[in-house]
Write a structure and sequence with these properties.
With 295 residues, the protein is an alpha/beta fold. It has helices at residues 43-49, 83-97, 114-125, 143-146, 201-219, 243-258, 276-284; strands spanning 12-16, 53-59, 70-73, 77-82, 102-109, 149-154, 162-164, 174-177, 181-184, 188-192, 225-229, 233-236, 267-271.
Length: 295
């Protein structure tokens, strides 16, 4: 294991964008899947594969929003999974079995009434079932402070025991919280007309930003957490936006970057359509030798 004194920010952490947007749980069959499906693996499957960062998008559920919040992707795509019954239950089960691990949990409102959703999430976070799982400090923690726990990244504002973060829309680089969390979430790559003769020009630019973040985080010596969204979409002329078009380009490059690397500290690597092999490769790159899947 890593020493308890090691900061979580000084790791390379596999993560998923729109973690709950899976085809198997979709309630929105009328939408083209490549508009909104981002993952194949379920919550527990991702954890078992090595994923340690969840990007959860929610809307209120039930009368006056008092029910278990629903997983959504934007305003139009919803799923048959819920925050407490699925996300939190799977994380708790995983951490009970693996008490040396830690999970970073980003929570954002994608649809519905803010107050209703905030109250519903806080009721779950503060419930006897889950309250002891959350890290309650204000600073970015060491591993020793959060083994067996959840670090909540609050993208809504007003959540209990969360580190409040704000991510500007489509940002190439921004501070999400004071000066200790830096984010890249350039997700809308626009339309690539191929007029330059290089139909991958927009994706090449996105990859240059992603790779630059890897290198910057890896070289940093202070307790700064980098959130690096490798996810996004682009549109070709006369075609609809495509998520997999970018992930099919990006994921092999991420794999090549981490291949044969050791002792990395590249921050949170947030991907669409993650596979077990890719998650494991990022996870294993933290060690000075190829090591079994554990911190």
């Amino acid at each position: 294991y890593f020493p308890d004194s090691k900061y979580v920010s000084r790791l390379s952490i596999p993560g998923t964008h729109d973690t709950g947007s899976t085809f198997s749980t979709s309630n929105t069959p009328f939408l083209a899947t490549d508009w909104y499906i981002t993952q194949e693996l379920g919550f527990r499957e991702q954890l078992d594969a090595g994923v340690r960062f969840f990007d959860i998008r929610l809307r209120p559920n039930g009368i006056n929003g008092a029910g278990d919040p629903t997983i959504v992707h934007g305003e139009h795509a919803s799923f048959s999974t819920n925050f407490s019954a699925n996300v939190m239950a799977d994380i708790k089960s995983f951490l009970t079995t693996n008490p040396n691990e830690v999970v970073l949990l980003s929570v954002k409102k994608d649809d519905g009434d803010y107050t209703q959703l905030k109250n519903a999430i806080n009721a779950i976070i503060n419930s006897p079932t889950y309250s002891s799982l959350f890290y309650t400090g204000a600073a970015l923690p060491t591993l020793g402070q959060v083994r067996g726990k959840i670090i909540l990244l609050d993208r809504m504002g007003g959540l209990t025991n969360g580190l409040s973060i704000s991510i500007p829309d489509n940002t190439h680089r921004a501070y999400a919280r004071n000066h200790d969390i830096i984010v890249q979430d350039y997700y809308n790559l626009g339309t690539d007309s191929c007029l330059t003769g290089n139909c991958d020009a927009n994706k090449d630019y996105k990859w240059s930003i992603v790779k630059g973040f890897f290198n910057e985080s890896n070289a940093a010596s202070s307790n700064i957490l980098y959130l690096n969204f490798c996810s996004g979409y682009m549109t070709r002329i006369l075609q609809t936006p495509s998520i997999s078009d970018l992930s099919n380009y990006m994921n092999p490059r991420v794999k090549d970057y981490f291949k044969d690397k050791l002792n990395t500290k590249c921050g949170v690597v947030i991907l669409d359509h993650i596979t077990q092999d890719l998650a494991q490769l990022i996870y294993m790159s933290n060690f000075d030798v190829f090591t079994p899947n554990t911190w």
